[in-house]
UniProtKB/TrEMBL annotation:
SMART domains: HTH_XRE. Residues 12-61 form the HTH cro/C1-type domain. It comes from the Bacteria. InterPro entries: Cro/C1-type_HTH, Lambda_DNA-bd_dom_sf. GO terms for molecular function: DNA binding. PROSITE patterns: HTH_CROC1 (PS50943). This is XRE family transcriptional regulator.
């Protein structure tokens, strides 16, 4: 299973989904699904934009778990 750490990264930086929408132009529903870990896929462009915005690596945003 792949776990998305988007919510934790936002919390650590004291950001809201609305901040990310405004600053990146990524669709709010896409970010909401990532935040609640209900998404089944992510576009490479979106992944790159989020990693650059949050100044993190893909491995910090997404991780493989044994669940």
């Amino acid at each position: 299973m792949i776990k998305c750490n988007f919510a934790e990264l936002l919390g650590a930086r004291k950001l809201k989904i609305a901040d990310v929408v405004r600053d990146t132009g990524i669709n709010r529903s896409t970010l909401t699904r990532l935040y609640h870990e209900t998404t089944s896929r992510i576009d490479f462009d979106t992944l790159e934009t989020l990693c650059r915005y949050l100044e993190c690596d893909v491995g910090q945003l997404l991780e493989v778990t044994d669940e």
